[in-house]
Design goal:
A hairpin with a 5-residue loop joins strand 8 and strand 9. The chain has a single domain, classed as OB fold (Dihydrolipoamide Acetyltransferase, E2P) (Beta Barrel). With 144 residues, it is mostly beta strands. The strands form 2 sheets. A 6-stranded mixed β-sheet has the order 2-11-10-7-8-9, with no helix packed on it. Strands 1, 3, 4, 5 and 6 form a 5-stranded antiparallel β-sheet that branches. It has no helices and 11 strands.
Length: 144
C-alpha cells in the first residue's frame, strides 16, 4: 500500500497525514493501528498501544462498515460548514469508535444502531487548489 499523502504531488491530499492508505486499485481506505500484544485497534494510528503500552503495533485497514453509536445535529458552525449537519460516532467491527459527518440521511430518519458505511471522498479544496480527502458516513446501502 502507498500513503495517500504521497498523492499530494498529484493534487490530492488527506485531511490528516496517516489517516488513509491506497489499495492496489488506488482506492483510499481508512487505516488504524492493531496491537500485536493485546489485539486492540485504534484510530487514528498510534506508535504505542494505549491499552497495554506495547510498541508492537502494525498499520491495518479498517472496515468501511459500521453502526451508529450516537449522533448530534449541528445548527451553528463556522461559515465553512453549511448547517445543519449531523456528526456521528460510528462503531467499527474492530472495536474502534470514530467521529464522522453523516451525509445523505434526513435528520428525522437517523436511528441509533443503524448500519453505516464509511467512504473516503473529496471534502474541499485547499488554497493551493488541491483536493482534500476526508471521510463521511452514509446509511449502508444508501445513495449519496
Amino acid at each position: 500500500m502507498t500513503e495517500v499523502a504521497e498523492a499530494g504531488r498529484s493534487g490530492v491530499v488527506p485531511i490528516h497525514p496517516g489517516v488513509f492508505e491506497s489499495e492496489a486499485q488506488g482506492e483510499p481506505r481508512l487505516v488504524g493501528t492493531h496491537c500485536r500484544g493485546c489485539g486492540a485497534h485504534f484510530f487514528p494510528r498510534r506508535a504505542v498501544c494505549a491499552r497495554c503500552l506495547s510498541s508492537e503495533v502494525e498499520v491495518v485497514p479498517l472496515s468501511p462498515a459500521g453502526t451508529l453509536h450516537t449522533y448530534t445535529v449541528v445548527y451553528q458552525s463556522t461559515p465553512e460548514f453549511p448547517t445543519p449537519y449531523i456528526l456521528a460516532y460510528v462503531d467499527l467491527p474492530e472495536g474502534v469508535r470514530l467521529l464522522a459527518p453523516l451525509a445523505g440521511v434526513p435528520v428525522d430518519q437517523v436511528q441509533i444502531g443503524m448500519p453505516l458505511r464509511l467512504r473516503v471522498e473529496p471534502v474541499r479544496t485547499d488554497p493551493e487548489g488541491r483536493t482534500i480527502l476526508g471521510y463521511r458516513a452514509y446509511a449502508a446501502g444508501g445513495a449519496a
